[in-house]
Amino acid sequence: MAKKSRSGSSNTPRQRPSTPSRTQPAQEPVAAVRRDRRSGSMQNRKEERLKLQQTQKRQWLYTRVAFGVILVALIGWFGYIGFQAYQGYQIRGDVDEYFGKDDFVAEHYDTGAVLYEQIPPTGGFHNAAWQNCGFYDQYLNNVNAVHSLEHGAVWITYDPALPESDIESLREMGGQPYMLVSPYPGMGSPITLSIWGHQLKLDSFDEGKIDAFVREYKVKQEYTPEFGAICYGGTSATTDVEPQQQPFIIADPSLGPVGGIRDIDATATAAALNPVPTPTVE
């Protein structure tokens, strides 16, 4: 028989009841915190990616809109330039060219009158004083206005019977640099645009054609005899005397243009205006 211990129990060792680990309760909150941190970090990264995507979308949208605006502006600009070039091409086809910028330059005549080949004149003998650019509601002396053409001005002459609204529009144009505007009866057209050696007659007030002519010819070096000369500081004199109504006619057209003829050559002028008929041989 097995011996009992003093306590009356057998020799088989007794097993102690298991007790919970002291560290386990402390580990659970730490794991939970870590899980929360990982979850929060992933959520933050997700939100950041979402914000980045939204920012990129906005930037791409802004870029597309800006590119579209620039493209439309460029198309409009090139279209406008092309339209102006087309207008200039049309105007050049309608303009009468009488002589070049090197003809009749600095031919001053201050002691008498001058008769011109074109009405209104486009160049030739002129007074030493140029006409100050601007709008005038009275006649100008041709000899002064022609000098302004030599400086590169555009001279717009209008029939005094032109509608008042059109005259007011011309008045505004006369406020621009190198623009000379004045009445001129007997031109054969309501409005005439002149520069040195070139002229365009209009059947009516046409702002588009006037603007095209001005862009094409005003103070352009290829047309201006005295390029860089001023259009102020001259004379603002006007006259009540109607300007020349009939063009001076060259007796011998084969000689080419003469621009204008001085009054001291009156006999030649008379002969040109009233040529003697050639007698016929019977």
Fold and architecture overview:
The protein is rod-shaped, with a radius of gyration of 47 Å. The chain is of the alpha/beta class and 282 residues long. The longest helix has 71 residues, at 24-94. The protein is built from five helices and eight strands, in the order H-E-E-E-H-E-H-E-E-E-H-E-H. Helix 1 (24-94) packs across helix 4 (207-217).
Secondary structure layout plus pairing:
Elements: H1 24-94, E1 96-97, E2 114-116, E3 134-135, H2 142-150, E4 154-158, H3 164-173, E5 179-183, E6 191-195, E7 198-202, H4 207-217, E8 260-262, H5 266-273
What brief labels describe this structure?
11% strand; 282 residues; two-stranded antiparallel ribbon
Summarize it:
The chain has 282 residues and is α/β, with parallel strands linked by helices.
